[in-house]
Amino acid sequence: MSSGPSVVRQPAFEKSNVELVNGLRSNFTASREASVSLTNGEEVHVAGGHVTPANDDISYTLWTSKDSDCLHIPSKIFQATELLEESSDYDITVKLFLLPKSFFHDWRRHLQEAVAAVLKELGVDSINLLIVSFPGISFDADTEGKGGCGSNTINASESELLDAILDAWKEVELMKSRGMVLQVGIAEFGVERLQKFLPKVKHRPTVDQINVRDCCVLPGPMMVFAKQENLELLTHNDCTNILPQGTLRDLLGGGDHGAGVLAGSNPQCEGLNGDIRPEWVVKYTAVIRERGVIENKGYFASAELSDIVAD
Question: Residue 73 has what DSSP assignment?
């Protein structure tokens, strides 16, 4: 009897983009409501789950913090989130989404920032598995094995994209050589893209995470190649563009559902002016290995605010 490549189908929980947006909105709301401040000498009140200050809305400056040129939303407070047991008792998985609006030359820095944030949040020195999802790439089961590298939806040629991925992978390899990451993986790579990528890297990925969408069975060529290359295939239901620019603008803008950080079109709003550009999102889970219980799960996101250039 022969065995096929390892294919692990992940449980179909809430899609990551919905989970992320709902989590960010809830976190922003809770932070605003928990802020204690005085506005024009009058106390700010919280009633019925909604912030109702005496005069105007709560200023974003009361529940955010600034560190150099970085604004932390909400305030950068690392507390009460460290793991309860020894770090060796956990399987910690981190998935970094490099977003379509990010620049190639920033990818290595984004990797550094994202992994550092998770390590600090959990109070650990290393993570078990780091999966990197590069923007614009999606696995296409219908065309797999028929030539082509699958879908590429960003404004770059395949060779330019591969060069950028290889450059960013150097940072992944550096983390692995330092013991910060024990295993590394990629997402949405089909056979042809893997054939171009694998021979050029020092530390090869051990995992390829694929969104099979409505497909029940992975294509044969992918299964055969994964077995040959000792790649574990994982399925997922994450969105590649997990935090679109418009969604982030709505979350941080004004209105009933916004956090009031961005001024938007309201001249009366004290929020920040500029064009918001999402750069990366990182998702992390810490599972107690012996019990298979998720103890800690969360997200970090990063974006850049730049001046709007008038036409």
Answer: S
Question: Which residues contact residue 122 at a Cβ distance below 8 angstroms, ignoring those fewer than 6 apart?
Answer: 81, 82, 83, 87, 92, 284, 286, 296
- Which amino acid, one-letter code, is at 30? A
Give the chain's residues under pLDDT 50: 1-13, 37-56, 78-80, 147-148, 309-311
Dihedrals phi, psi of 24, to nearest 5 degrees:
-60, -45
- 293: exposed, middle or buried (Cβ count in 10 Å: 0-12, 13-18, 19+): exposed
Long-range contacts of 298-303 (CB under 8 A, 24+ apart): 298/23, 298/81, 298/121, 299/19, 299/20, 299/23, 299/24, 300/114, 300/117, 300/118, 300/121, 301/20, 301/24, 301/243, 301/248, 302/110, 302/113, 302/114, 302/278, 303/248, 303/276, 303/277, 303/278, 303/279
Q: How far apart are CA 17 and CA 84, in angstroms?
A: 28
Query: Distance between terminal CA atoms of the chain?
Result: 67
DSSP 75-122: -----S-S-SS-GGGEEEEEEEEE-TTS-GGGHHHHHHHHHHHHHHHH
**pLDDT score, position 217:** 73
Q: Could you give the C-alpha distances from 197 to 64, 76, 163, in angstroms and in order?
A: 41, 37, 9
Q: What is the pTM of this model?
A: 0.84
Nearest to 276 by CA among 253, 299, 260, 256: 253
Distance CA(274)–CA(305), nearest Å, equals 6
